[in-house]
Amino acid sequence: MVTCPVCKNPLSAIRFPENSRQFWKGGWTCGFCKSEIDRKGNLIKKNEKGLKEYEERLSREEYLKEKARLQAQKEHKKK
User: β-strand 43-45 against 28-29: which pairing, if any?
Assistant: First the structure.
């Protein structure tokens, strides 16, 4: 299994080429940070905008999870 060298998320086993280089030589575009990776898992092009969006989404998700955990903890103490 190949993982993205930027965000460390696993890449899909089924790939959909987004450009002719990926079609002919293989490779992926990370679904999380939008960086381009060759078929051996080496970084070709780091997408700073996609990485920033991924980090913002991740931090929002972490915030919501923490908020839900604290709310559940608060409700549990009421009982």
Answer: unpaired
